UniProtKB/TrEMBL annotation:
It is an enzyme of class 6 (ligase). The gene is tyrS. This is Tyrosine--tRNA ligase. HAMAP family: Tyr_tRNA_synth_type2. GO terms for cellular component: cytosol. It comes from Tepidimonas taiwanensis. GO terms for molecular function: ATP binding; RNA binding; tyrosine-tRNA ligase activity.
């Protein structure tokens, strides 16, 4: 797989826009394009960068997130990483929490109406979102806004005036709306309001650039349209790829179980990164690593010339783990992983005391929190994934007498169980 420093197309007009541009502007464009799916229009963005350099006025860069769940995983950090890169260039980053739009529910990519959240859920999730996002963004240089600030103030009259800025025919060009309409799946009128309200956020914030996943392109373009309707210079839009999860197939999602939460403990985070395929590693590097593209390409060349890809994967695992837990925790996580790989027992494992000796192995695993059920415990035993004091357990009918045992399930779950 070839890693390119520029993944977006090089459209007509950008060379003209770059004529006479400084090295700083050219570098800013390269940073913007790194790992992105699409930047529209590139020539407009170059002009904005040149104007910012000439006037000393930072550009306003917007990312809107609806707090639909309390936790952020690595997939969410793809756009956050890009925001941080642009923030480090000196531009103003606006972390927009969609507390109003969450009441509608984003229909993007949905084949059914999304159930809205309660205000209490939204507030709780929003607080968690920003606290976790601050692990990537620089809080001192981040403007935090809630779109209820201007959306609530619109009122019924303002909403009708806003709705007059777009047509039903244009709205039905959305792929998800078209599919649902053809399939006879209901589309509620309030779902048409979602892209309008997200677009109006760009008007309220006077956004120069809005970021989002590839599934957000329609909503991002709505911002450009509405800014023009309201007499503003239209924003540029930057879409980022949807990060593939641990399986290397589906996009990272908690519901699919293929995710790495950014608040997971350091040992788990490190081990999960190490579990991805070599191919997936090269797709993750440009999107999750802060190493330069030149350095990433050098690492790829070294692997092509015979370097063990696991060594390069360890570098990525350490970088990601250190970002959220610190360098010392990342080093300790690597040591823990290597110890477990050699069949060793970590220095610190949970201590559990159970009564009821003699106890069947399935019940013990469930009671010690090492398996969710006895049936799952039996499945783990059948797969050779259970060890007691280093020996593999193959007998599902095993009963353990009183004593203390080191019990291991898989590569990462341990407990010192005292049975009385």
């Amino acid at each position: 797989m070839n890693i390119s420093t520029v993944s977006a197309a090089h459209p007509e007009g950008v060379d003209e826009a770059l004529q006479g541009a400084s090295d700083a502007v050219r570098e800013a464009l390269a940073v913007t394009l790194r790992g992105c799916d699409e930047l529209l229009p590139v020539a407009d963005w170059v002009r904005k960068l040149r104007r910012s350099e000439a006037t000393g006025q930072p550009l306003r860069i917007k990312l809107g997130l609806d707090p639909t769940a309390p936790d952020i995983h690595l997939g969410h950090t793809v756009v956050l990483n890009k925001m941080r890169q642009l923030q480090d260039l000196g531009h103003t980053v606006i972390f927009l929490i969609g507390d109003f739009t969450s009441l509608i529910g984003d229909p993007s990519g949905r084949n059914a109406t999304r159930p809205p959240l309660t205000p209490e859920q939204i507030q709780a999730n929003a607080e968690t979102y920003y606290r976790q996002a601050s692990l990537v963004l620089d809080p001192a240089r981040t403007e935090i806004r809630y779109n209820s600030e201007w959306s609530d103030a619109l009122g019924a009259r303002g909403m009708i005036q806003l709705a007059a800025k777009y047509t039903v025919a244009r709205m039905m060009e959305r792929d998800d709306f078209t599919k649902r309409f053809k399939a006879g799946t209901p589309i509620s009128i309030h779902e048409f309001l979602y892209p309008l309200m997200q677009g109006y956020d760009s008007v309220a914030l006077k956004s120069d650039l809005e970021l989002g996943g590839t599934d957000q392109k329609f909503n991002l373009l709505m911002g450009r349209h509405l800014q023009q309707e309201y007499g503003q210079e239209p924003q540029c839009i930057l879409t980022m790829p949807l990060l593939e999860g641990l399986d290397g197939v589906e996009k990272m999602s908690k519901s699919k179980g293929n995710y790495i939460g950014i608040t997971e403990d350091a040992n788990t985070m490190f081990a999960k990164v190490l579990s991805i395929s070599d191919e997936l590693m090269w797709r993750w590097y440009p999107l999750l690593s802060f190493r330069s593209m030149a350095e990433i390409e050098r690492l790829q060349q070294e692997v092509a010339q015979g370097r063990n890809p696991k060594e390069v994967k360890v570098l990525l695992a350490r970088e990601i783990t250190a970002r959220f837990h610190g360098a010392a925790a990342a080093e300790a996580a690597q040591q823990d992983f290597e110890l477990r790989s050699r069949g060793g027992v970590p220095d610190q494992i949970p201590e559990v005391t159970l009564s009821g000796a003699p106890m069947g192995i399935g019940v013990l695993l469930k009671s010690a929190g090492l398996a969710p059920s006895t049936s799952e415990a039996n499945r783990l035993i059948d797969g050779g994934g259970v060890r007691i004091d280093g020996g593999v357990v193959s007998d599902k009918g095993l009963k353990l007498s009183a004593g203390t045992y080191v019990v291991q399930v898989g590569k990462r779950k341990f407990a010192r169980v005292t049975l009385v």
